[in-house]
Specification:
By secondary structure, the chain is mainly α. Helix content is 72%, strand content 0%.
């Protein structure tokens, strides 16, 4: 559709800050917090062993990993885009770390930085293709998901890395207070860094503005295309962090650790940010909401497993939760648009 000059807004609309305390944000975060408390109490009473140290440890580890996966997807959703290749990028980043440690003999910090760079580079490739072809990121990342994963399997010969440094594996097995995984702390650090980025830095606020209204943002002089590439690169780097975290849980780095083509990451990647209030249309983000969304999903999953509910029904329930969250987000966006038009 051709856009006329009169139809263009003069400036990008004011964006709600991440974790901001507008009415919608307060309602969403308060609702998730209440739901988490209710379900934790319910499962503690109904499911034997739900509060046992071993289950709390398992739960904290799952929250840490899936929380970082959700935060990675959130960095692209704020642009109004998607990244179906997130799982493939995460595995590729982890495989680079494994190669650097086991084959190249690099020290752990250098290997981890190389893996982050690899994830960021693959994410940037997605972003460049999106801005150069003008295709939706859904189409682009659907294709690159197969490309990235296929090239990684060809280069590695589908072989993993199982001789990781003992100190790195010990960190993954560590139990804080005898029941908390350090991977939960990794997720907290990633969340705090993203919160700082979107709330206190110019580039973070520009990413939100570009995602909310790319045309208006471009008219105000923002480098929208570059910001979109930055967002995809950030998604890839955070995805690589998640890949390393999965490796620490498994004790090895293998190409299949995120499922076929990385597809096992898709549901947790979308559930956490969407439940947390990140707008699929872009421009709104809630880091705290995404974290609470992850806690909600993992508590529900763990509790239902302990109640011996079949995995099929658990996946069905999570799918319904995602659909309901999307419908609620669309209804909220429609209501906000109606109010703005009446105003």
């Amino acid at each position: 559709m051709q856009v006329t000059e009169s139809a263009l807004p003069a400036a990008a609309p004011e964006m709600r800050r991440p974790g901001g305390w507008g009415d919608a944000a307060r309602s969403n975060i308060a609702g998730l917090l209440l739901a988490n408390i209710v379900f934790i109490i319910a499962f503690a009473l109904l499911a034997s062993g739900f509060t046992s140290p071993i289950n709390v440890y398992s739960l904290s580890r799952s929250i840490g990993i899936d929380g970082v996966i959700g935060l990675a997807m959130m960095t692209v959703i704020i642009t109004g885009g998607l990244n179906l290749a997130l799982g493939a990028i995460g595995v590729c980043g982890a495989m680079v770390v494994g190669w650097a440690l086991q084959n190249a003999g690099l020290p752990i910090p250098a290997a981890l930085l190389l893996g982050l760079f690899a994830g960021g580079a693959l994410g940037a490739i997605n972003g460049l293709i999106v801005v150069l072809t003008r295709l939706h990121s859904f189409v682009v990342t659907l294709a690159t998901m197969s490309v990235f994963f296929g090239v990684m399997v060809l280069l590695s010969g589908a072989a993993g890395f199982n001789a990781l440094p003992a100190s790195l594996l010990a960190f993954g097995r560590l139990r804080l207070f005898h029941m908390v995984s350090p991977l939960l702390l990794v997720m907290a650090v990633v969340a705090l860094l993203l919160f700082y980025l979107y709330r206190f830095t110019a580039v973070g606020r520009e990413m939100l503005a570009a995602g909310a209204n790319p045309v208006a943002a471009k008219l105000t002089g923002l480098p929208v295309e570059r910001l979109f590439v930055y967002s995809h690169a950030l998604c890839g780097a955070v995805g690589a962090v998640a890949g390393v975290m999965v490796s620490l849980r498994n004790g090895a780095i293998v190409p299949s650790m995120a499922g076929p083509l990385g597809a096992d990451w898709l549901l947790p990647a979308f559930l956490a940010p969407v439940l947390g209030g990140t707008a699929l249309t872009g421009g709104e983000v809630s880091v705290l909401g995404a974290v609470l969304g992850t806690v909600f999903v993992e508590v529900i999953t763990s509790g239902l497993y302990m109640l011996q509910i079949g995995e099929f029904w658990i996946q069905t329930a999570l799918g319904i939760a995602l659909l309901a969250a999307i419908l609620l987000e669309r209804a909220r966006a429609g209501a906000m648009l109606s109010r703005s038009l009446r105003g």
